Amino acid sequence: MNIDLLQMVESGGCSAKIPAKQLEEILRCLPLPDDPDILVNIETHDDAGVYRVNDELALVFTTDFFPPVCSDPYEFGQIAAANAISDVYAMGGKPVIALNIMMFPAAKLPVDAYKEILKGGVDIAFRAGVKIIGGHTIDDFPPKYGLAVVGYIHPQKIITNAGARSGDILILTKPVGTGVILAGQRLGLTSESDVSQVKAFMKLLNNSGADIMNKYDVTGATDITGFGLAGHALKMARASSVSITLNLGRLPLIGSTYALTDQGCIPGAAFRNLEYVENEAHVEDDLDYNLKMIAYDAQTSGGLLMAVSPEKADEVISELHNKGLDTSAKIGFVTEKQEKFLYLYK
Ligand code: CO
Ligand code: CO
Ligand code: CO
Question: How far is the CA of 101 from the centre of ligand 2 (A)?
């Protein structure tokens, strides 16, 4: 099939999110439903909502969808599904069922592209043990695809943005740079290897990370998506009433992310994230500008950022490496709340 989905969009994937600042303003206007069975609501800006069914079982419920991040419809479906399911893993849940959410320009694209997107979604869902049991389509341009996912979780074992504690070590399970590399691809600045690496990471499920978090009783985590590493770390620090220091020199990067940033390949979403985080962050005076902007780079289907107690951090890292997540690294730590929520250091 000779279709290039990327030609239809200006910003795809999680870069197409509404700016965090604006979204928070909008959400503030909504009344919060009052129900003791709602265990996680939008107040902590978590990855998913959680609703208690009984003392043994709660449902993790989430949705994500976005415009294309790559040219090939099948791969787009895979990435969108991995990204949507990730929000259940980020809470420590087990994803179970899902619905397709599809916006598709029937007059502008052959129906085969539609089939391929859905097929990519089903294949990744299958790998995650998720059954897709329905969905909904609207005729719309550009195409958008994602899932609404329901997962199971024990009501006492929910991992949230609010669960980071002073002393915890921050571990990131996937390297950063999807926004920069996808922007570089548009400008023709990337190699084949950059693009294939970035796609492989976006398709990679966060299931092993979730298993390991459960095994080591991690209580605080999130996945890194459209608000960038710094944006999501800020949300975690705020929800947990702690401060977070990120050591950006330790950040694992995908392919030529640093070189591309150095050439000025910094997508607009990174500047929107910077604007959101800026007032709450202290940036070390001589911090490398490229590293700083990489911390703001919007990720699509990024890794888990987990707050792990210091005694367990080394074991968690070696388990992640054993599971093939060999770029997992300690990239920062949590302290008591200081003047700022976020500290960006070398
Ligand atoms: Co998320
Ligand atoms: Co999400
Ligand atoms: Co979470």
Answer: 14
